[in-house]
Amino acid sequence: MALDKPYKNVPGTTIYDAEQARKGYHLNQLAMSLMKPENRARFLADQPAYLDEWPLNPVQRQAVLDMDLNTMIAEGGNIYFLSKIGATHGLSFQQMAGSMTGMSEAAYRDMMVGGGRRPEGARLKDLDGWTPPSTEKATTMRPDAPAKYTSALFTSHVPAIGAAMDLGKTEEPYWKQVFDGYQWTRKWAKENTPDVVILVYNDHATAFDASIIPTFVLGTGAEYPVADEGYGPRPVPDVKGYPEFAAHLAQSIIQDDFDLTLVNEMVVDHGLTVPLSLVYGELGVDEEWPVKVIPLAVNVVQYPVPSGRRCYELGKALRRAIDKWDGEELNVQIWGTGGMSHQLQGPRAGLINKEWDNAFLDHLIADPLGLTEWPHMEYVDEAGSEGIELVDWLIARGAMDDQFGGEEPSTDHRFYHVPASNTAVGHLVISNPVGRATVAAEDAVESVGAPAAEPAETAAVANA
Ligand SMILES: O=C(O)c1ccc(O)c(O)c1
Fold this sequence. Notes:
The protein is of the alpha/beta class. It has helices at residues 18-23, 25-33, 37-45, 47-51, 58-66, 69-74, 79-88, 93-99, 105-113, 124-128, 159-166, 173-180, 183-191, 243-255, 270-280, 308-324, 354-366, 368-371, 376-383, 393-398; strands at residues 147-155, 196-201, 216-219, 223-224, 239-240, 261-263, 292-298, 330-337, 410-420, 423-431, 458-462.
């Protein structure tokens, strides 16, 4: 079920996609550096010395020295980036484009004056009668898919939880109540380590500042350093990505009409590292997380934010993308993080709505489609201005088997507790049949406190 990339075969044409972007990353960034006059001057004064500052491969390096645009493009360059190199040499776009055609500058200009190159004979359809691919969206699962979505994990990602771990406070009574709710999960996670976690979270004005507000960001990079959010970076490992799988997901999801922002380089904040710490425990900077992570960040910082329905639909597009993977066998988990009820601002700060939070959990488990009807105002009004983070969770849920005609997930673990700093903590592990939990019932955490719907401070249900 290879992804449809007919654009690769258009004659005399190289389409810049995530695969090319990965290959040409440093070449294109070098070109971008020439937008500064001082860098242009240094480049022109001593090109080899300037290129020494960039980790280009030898073919890319020689192509820049030769101003050979065809080779630069084959090596992952994109003309919009590369034009900065041409401009530094004083070349016009017409000179640059003409230089790639094998024609003299004058002949190319004359061709353009004469009406330009005719498409006949230079189109894919002239070569092999290509017909457009079907745009139908799968509504059922692919039974033999090499990538299996095993389990969804949901958790709050309160920064103070990370700080409690980093500062060795987990045994203090205040924090012990929080961490007790994750003991089951830690055991389960040891026996159910996926190859990759698609980790849905929201950036907290960390990687993205007020200059750019992308709605949905998919990380296609190889590594994500831990951010310094003002307290210094958390002493935890940097996060390793999975560029090939992420590029595949991007290709499929965008063809499925979701316009993701693709990010090759970004820092990750507590929204992403706290869930990893909660599940995999204290790991030092020199250690490695046991999983590759593909970050999927949702804007909830500046309105308008995406609706729960939109997030759920993105989850469906994500599952279709997972099912289309034809590479190595993969065990995939999707984590939905953020929330639960909390408000960090204004006179209403400290708002906690246990009843609403637990109704959200109930619906997430049993009625995700119904949950998509809840408008964003409901989240803000009932769960606080920062409670809106809960829309993140619908992505993981929309991708599950039962939303594609398969079986309902099992609820393996459920936990709810108030407070962690200003926030209610909610946590769920639910699994598709292929990922049913392997932790023995007797190893599971006993139920703590009253059932979830009661106004108790803490409630955990293991292997429910
Ligand atoms: O409760 C808190 O302290 C807190 C602070 C920052 C956050 O992003 C958050 O989700 C919670």
